[in-house]
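Hi U.,

Before I forget, here's the chain from the pilot set. I'm dumping it here mostly so it's searchable later in email.
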Amino acid sequence: MANSINKNPDSNPNISYTDPDLENFVSRLANNVERNTFIQKTIDNIRHYLQVDRVVLYYFYREWKGQVTFESLSYGDLSIYGSTGADECFNDEYAALYQHGRVRLMENIELEPIHPCHRDFLRSMQVKANLVVPILNSTRLWGLLVAHQCLNTRSWSNSDIEVMQKAALILATTPIIRDS
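Structure:
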């Protein structure tokens, strides 16, 4: 009588045909896709609602070192995706202000009393006016949500500020960000 080998993986429930490392990788990948989709939809909605030229998420990957990881644009040539910012301008003093919930708005960067390196940095990105709100997750200053007006100056309304603050809170309290 010949031995038969059963190659059906469903026939023996004690044998695992899945690699736990592969399952972990697929799970992390799915979470990243979910997070990225959620963030992108959020900033797209903000840009449409505020009718601004650009909305970006500046993510801190180390203490006060970060980069633009998401953006929504009214015109493709306004992209600053991947920009890392002017490190010498964003220091512990600025970080502490944002850690305490600072909202910073500039209606015209040329008239604001800001450090020259900050103004030069904003000019290099074609910014005429901006609105910055911190994203504070459960442990740290996770990032900055930033609306840019690039084609002209802008007077920011209370509702503009509220929309940005609500969006930052929603982002910060979403489990995929809150726990990261």
